[in-house]
Amino acid sequence: MKSYATKILVLMWVIGLLFSVPLHAQVAGATLTGTITDAQGGVVANAKVTAKNGATGITSETTTNSTGNYNLVNLNPAEYAVSVTATGFNTSTTKVTLTVGAQQQLSLALKVGEMSQLVEVTGAAPVIETENATLSGNVQSAQIVELPLNGRDWASLATLEPGVVAVRVHELVTQPGGNLRGLGNQMTIDGNRPTQNVYRLNGVIVNDYSNAGPGNVLGASLGVDAIQEFSVLTANYSAEYGFTSGGVINAITKSGTNQFHGSVYEFFRNKIFDSSNYLTPGQKPPFVRNQFGGSGGGPIFKNKLFVFADYEGIRQRKGIPVTYKILTPNARLGILNDPNGNASPALVGACQFPNMTNLAPGQASQCVDNFVTKYYNALTPANCNNGLIGPSNNICNFVTAGDQAVNDDYGTIRVDYKLSDKDSINSSFYRDYSDWAKPQNFNFETTGYILPNMSAALEENHVFSPAMVNSARFGWTQSIVTNPGLSVFNQGLVDKSLGITTAFNAPGVSGQGGGSAGPNGITGPGGFSPQGGFSDWVQNYQFFDDLTRTVGKHTLKFGFEFIRNHTDLVNANGNGSVGFGSIQSFLSNEPFTVRMPTDPPWTAGNT
After folding, report:
1. 202: left (phi over 0), alpha (psi -120 to 50) or beta
2. Cβ(25)–Cβ(242) under 8 Å?
3. What is the pLDDT of residues 492-541, one digit of tens each?
4. Cα–Cα distance between 459 and 455 in angstroms, integer?
């Protein structure tokens, strides 16, 4: 009885493994299926079906079963020459183009004759998929390379498909909390949130740290010359595409072929090619962008081992004029005007604390804390350069311009190896390291984002029999974002004597609403923060296995996926912050809130 119960439990476990939630066959290649018949419509069993990749010369073979059906799975997207041979029939050949993730149906009728006689079918195979009801679109290599793309972002072509819309301009990421939504591609597919989509490259999920689309700090997905093609699945896709409740962007990189091929390019953009702003005619902020790279691929051993590699770089510099609001020289001394611009009533009596400055009797003034004077003079410009702000005239404008600098290095490599008639293997790796430096704090420092994305994939295909094929895939992805301080041009920003404790630099100053605005709208200064305010490190380990079995006229798929997600999140408070309700409370150093630093100082890269 115990043995029987054990067998039942094992059987239930196996059934659960095959048919429970992880029934996702994450195959990135295409499937070719169909029925082979004679001229009268009778099925032809044991016919040999061979599909030859026109670019690599690699062939995939199978035979029809007793019902005349065949199934070739996980074929790389390409143009194939398909030939069918059977005893007593002429050999029939035709050509078919397979796309990424497609399930293409190709049925042929053989004519009676000798196998040495060749019948070429010139009619093209139907491009409409009759095997499933998936709503999808396909973007091929020629479209990716030839269509004009600002920034060479191949993923932006997904918006050509119905129901796909870009939902955010990248610069809005700089707003508070924007980086939490990801720096990469942001698209809604059929009304779903951007974080509900899944992005797959060579069968491996490559979503970024926020679970949105991957991309560099400019929000673009590079590698135009590396992408063979991609599909956009918007609705009705099968269970094999898991890890999503929105749409699927399914891409595959190029592989080497029997012929060496490659490209070298550079795209240059400068402000002289831009038009002036309508409101500021004749004024163009500095701007220059160089986008360059090259790709190449070919055989290591013809018809057997192939390699393809691609590199792309971006160097961009953009002038960013910024207006800051600072206290006037008189306001720093405590000499304040009322809201109508009139002198405030004279201070009555002495200041209450010994560290406050007492002005001459009868002078309209506000008690000023000596530490506030040291703090504010060290972290802000001494004088305005763009006029007073009325009506009180206690605040003035300081306008400066700094360079926003973007650097990006993208690279990918893919190796395909035909081990034998029954086994093939392919591997790929890509790395996209980008950083974005922008001027901050009166152009006294630069802060920004550092975003290194990486992914590796290894897949093995094994043919057990003409009716059963297995694909196993391992994937690893890493997406990191840090928001550190990068460089300092004012030594007051690293003066530890201005910090809440001697372990930190000067805290930030905020007003009632928080954020970067100080009391009464002045720009809240703060010390240099090498740790910044945000860091997220996400690694995914993925394993997929897919088994395809042809039984009679039916094709069955079994599979599972395993994903292990590891996240390290640091939401640092920098050097802390101090909130004041008014300029008067700021000058007298009477805050309404103080946020202490919560994490020890660290430098970028030591997460």
Report:
1. left
2. no
3. 999 999 998 888 899 989 886 555 567 778 888 888 988 777 788 899 99
4. 13
Look at strands 30-38 and 108-110 and give their pairing: parallel
Cβ atoms of 192 and 246 closer than 8 Å: yes
Tokens representing residue 504 in the block: 């930190």
Q: Contact, 83 vs 91, CB < 8 A?
A: yes
Cα–Cα nearest to 486, from 270, 222, 220, 217: 217
From the list 154, 142, 227, 144, the residue with the least C-alpha distance to 185 is 154
Q: Judge whether residue 260 has pLDDT over 60.
A: yes
CA angle, residues 423, 233, 198, in degrees to nearest 5:
80
Query: Is residue 356 scored above 90 in pLDDT?
Result: no
- Take residue 333 and report the two structure tokens written for it: 């001394």
Instruction: Enter the tokens of residue 48.
Output: 């040999």
Sign, Cα dihedral of 397, 400, 406, 407 = negative
Residue with tokens 């994937």: 475
| Structural contact between residues 543 and 561, judged by C-beta atoms closer than 8 angstroms | yes
Sign (positive or negative) of CA dihedral 391, 393, 394, 400: positive
Is the pLDDT at 349 greater than 60, yes or no? no
| Closest by CA position to 493, among listed 525, 536, 517 | 525
- Tell me how far CA of residue 543 lies from CA of 196, 253, 410, 538, in angstroms: 21, 19, 25, 17
Q: Please, are residues 376 and 332 in contact by the beta-carbon 8 Å criterion?
A: yes
Asked if residue 339 has a cis previous peptide bond (ω within 30° of 0), the answer is: no
Report helix, strand or coil for 137. strand
